[in-house]
Amino acid sequence: MGKENPAEKALNLIRGRLCDPTFVFRPLSGPPDSNYSKLKFIVSTSITEGCNNSILLLGPRGSGKAAVLDLVVGDLMEEYPDSVTLIRLNGLLHSEDNCAFKEIARQLCMEHHLLFSKMASFDENSQFIIAMLRECGLAHKTIIFVLDEFDMFAQGKQRLLYSLLDAMQSVTSQAVVVGISSRLDADQLLEKRVRSRFSHRKILFLPPSREEIDSLLEHLLSLPADSSFPSGYVTQFNEKIKNITSDTRFKDMLKTFLNANSTVNSLLKFIFRAVSSMNLESGLLSLENFKTALSSMLRQPKLEAVRDCSILELYLLVCMRRLEVKEQSSYNFISVMKEYKTIHDSFQTSDFYAQNVCLRAFEHLREREVICYAENRGQSQAGEYRPMKLLISASELHQGMRSHACCPAILLKLLDH
Amino acid sequence: MTCFILTFGRFGRRYKTYMTKEESSKVTRRSTRSSLTVTNPMNPNPPLPTVNDLTYGQESITLDALLSNFPGRRSQILDLIRLIGPLDSPTLPIIIYGDASAGKTGVVLQVFRHLNRPFVYSTCPSSKRCDKPSDFVNLLKQALRPMGKTVGLPPDVYYSNMGYTDPLPIYFPDVVLRPFCRVTRRVEELSTTFSLLFRKYCEPLDDLGVSPNEDLKSHLKPHIALCLNVVFRVSSHSHDVTPEARGGGKLAIVLRRVKSWRNPATLDASMFDSTGGMDNRKRKRKASEKSMEKKEIAEQEAAMKGPGSFPLERLLAIFQCIASIGDSSFNEEKKKLLSGSCPLEGSVRYRSMVSEDLSLQVARSLSFPLSKYLYRR
Questions:
Q1: What is the CATH number of the domain that holds A390?
Q2: Which of A1, A88, A92 to mutate to test the interface with B (most CBs of B within 10 A)?
Q3: Whether A369 and A291 share a structural domain
Q4: In which broad location class does this protein mainly occur, judging by the first location in its UniProt entry (chain B) (predicted)?
Q5: Does residue A14 sit within a domain?
Q6: Do B328 and B262 share a structural domain?
Q7: Has residue A245 been placed in a domain?
Q8: What does the pLDDT look like over B77-129, one tens digit per residue?
Q9: Which of A40, A150, B193, B282 has the most beta carbons within 10 angstroms of its beta carbon?
Q10: Which of A248, A280, A297 is at the close of a domain?
Q11: Beta strand spans in chain B (E)
């Protein structure tokens, strides 16, 4: 590598940390009443006592459910080597029963170095799984089934869930079923017979508190005082971080961001964006980096769409809005063109274009999903006669036009009346 | 570190998703862009492609060249480079969004050329829509398969994708000069205008004494407005069809409009008898305010619904009433301007595609009193 710029090294280090969930969630696992500890307790008792268990991890997307589970599993595999087998399924890919059984059989074969046949039928797979459960139970090896997107498995007949949970009860097995879902009512989706076999253990992943966030920031952004960095640089860098995080402007920014996205994952992305724009010459982070990151993370697509419209497209949008205000329940291209013509006649605007040009502008608006057809049926009608509707509110249109680079003043006036 | 670039379209809006995998050591037999692979047919054992084959394959370009190739995209390019980061640095998925022909694919590929990093590029067909994430994964598998039967994504790539990580967004806004953005901001459509204008712009330069300066721009101004209306001329079906149609054909167009314009079939007989007396009788009724309102609403509704559909027999019947000639050779011409739908009965119904103004124009040219025969409540 040669002599690397310490700033670049610091950048790489922090970026690496942000992309590694294990690093991020490790400090959150410290306290004894944390989710990590609870989960670890449940799974480790199952390993040590040789019993079955089932548990649900619930929380919004990006709150670290899978990350904490990975941490727990990783730690347990170190503590009890050769006693733990991990089977991972994903509700988005394996919600169909055939697919799920095949995948479980395949992973079991891989773990235990057996030959897996793709041609095996559904019954063969399920018999194999039950046999493996029994064998592993007798050999005191625990199988952990991780069902990601658990609510997808609860659709349809729930055959997989029933078979697994039933097998766990009837056969001498040592298995833990961990379901991960972002639906907080995932357990309500279960059928009666499945629910009776499922232990009602749930671990909720709530958004982090202010103290947790502060400690997380420090954990992520502080450089270690080891020999790989020049020591003066490390103290300078960490000092700057402390200054930024204690600045009220930063706290306000953080509050604004967390109001919109309160999960740990979105916070990580915010920091990633800020860190990526670090000035490599000075090698230090600044408040500016966080400001630019904030504006790019809090985007408003509809506003951007309106800001990117051409003048003619703005005219059409204003015409549609005026028709709505006049309480015309539905309108189509022809009525919008009539309104456009009346505006032109009464105000003598300079932007009056031919019908085909306007039709193209309409198509652009439709592609950008600022407007759409009001109903899906009636396809046999020509596009000009199909009823349309606006997909943006009046205030969004107003805001977009005000921030538009060259919106004519007459349009704003027309929108208000 | 290998990067995956996927482009896929939805309603003409194109998104590019860019993901990275950290373990470059796991690069087994991934194939490259088809233009870059050169397999020697004589060699029975072609050498396994290495990571180097995944780079752009041409000379890298400097940052200044990259920035000058894409004017107006400076902030987005720098943003993208910063997010990709230095060599061997992991990054989160990035999504680049913006309108069609905003330069997204171009910029991404050229950035990779500049950075000289390996990447895998595939496009998903825009005709397919993904309703479920599992469909997306299957599409992904399909899209990557043609690149070589050995593109085997290890399963954990799926898991990292399916974790629903919100990618980091980069927005490519449209960048166009002021006067031209009045009609459209799409570069491809403006290119027709620009070519015309550029020719006009160069006109004064034919006079060798003149040197390019601000005066050229003022010469250009009056043409700009004209050209903006021309922007879409190339694609629309022109109205030149009608003057060339024969006299009978014109009449047929007019008639189509008559039928389509919501004339109830039952009134045909009374409307088209030689006296045309029905209309006069209707107009004598006094218009009260309520009926005026109703009329307005009915007009609106009529404007909303557009022309109605009619069977061919009705067209011919009315044609025979009006004109003494019942020439069947007009049928082929009629088919050109009609749109047909096939309802359940099996008989084909037609609908006029011609607008009201055009039919009135045609009627005037034939001195045919069209308004007398149009049903207005």
A1: 1.10.10.10
A2: A92
A3: no
A4: nucleus
A5: no
A6: yes
A7: yes
A8: 888 888 887 777 777 777 777 766 677 788 888 888 888 877 777 666 555 55
A9: A150
A10: A297
A11: 2-10, 13-21, 94-98, 119-124, 168-172, 309-311, 338-341, 349-352
Nearest to B85 among A15, A366, A368 (CB): A15
Write out the residue range of the structural domain in which residue B322 sits. Answer: 239-273+306-339+346-376
Determine phi and psi for B343, rounding to 5 degrees.
-75, -175
CB of B4 closer than 8 Å to CB of B119: yes
- The distance of B148 to chain A (nearest Cα, Å) reads 22
Residues A12 and B85: beta-carbon distance below 8 Å: yes
Do A353 and B229 lie within an 8 Å CB cutoff? yes
Which domain covers residue A365, as residue numbers?
303-416
Residues A194 and A241 in one domain: no
Whether residue B163 and residue A66 make contact (CB cut-off 8 A), yes or no, is yes
Residue of A102, A276, A277, A369 best to disrupt the B interface, most CBs of B under 10 A:
A276
**What CATH code is carried by the domain that includes residue A188?**
3.40.50.300
CB B133 within 8 A of CB B208: no
| CB distance B171 to A304 below 8 Å | yes
In the block, residue with structure tokens 């480079």: B81
- Per-residue DSSP letter, A117: -
Neighbour tally for A80: CB within 10 Å: 14
Out of B178, B210, B232, pick the residue that ends a domain. Answer: B232
pLDDT in tens, A341-370: 888 888 877 777 777 778 888 888 888 788
The DSSP bridge pattern shows strands B13-21 and B94-98 to be antiparallel
For residue B258, the one-letter residue type is V
Give the pairing of strands A53-58 and A175-181: parallel
Element (H, E) at B224: helix B214-230
CA distance linking residue B366 with residue B75, whole number of Å: 61
More confidently predicted of B280 and A66: A66
Is A214 found in the same domain as A198?
no
On whether any CB of chain A is under 8 Å from the CB of B298, the answer is: no
Smallest CA–CA distance, residue B236 to chain A, in Å, is: 7
Whether the model pTM is above 0.90: no
Specify the number of domains making up chain B.
3
Cβ contact A380–B341 (<8 Å):
yes
A357 vs B235: CB contact, 8 Å cut-off? no
Q: Is B190 in the same domain as B217?
A: yes
* Judgement on whether residues B205 and B262 belong to the same structural domain of the protein: no
Contact A276 B82 (CB under 8 A): yes
The C-alpha atoms of residue B334 and residue A112 are separated, in whole angstroms, by 75
Nearest-Cα distance to chain A for B224, in Å, is: 12
- Alpha-carbon distance A235 to B179, whole Å? 54
Give the domain-ending residue among A171, A204, A237: A204
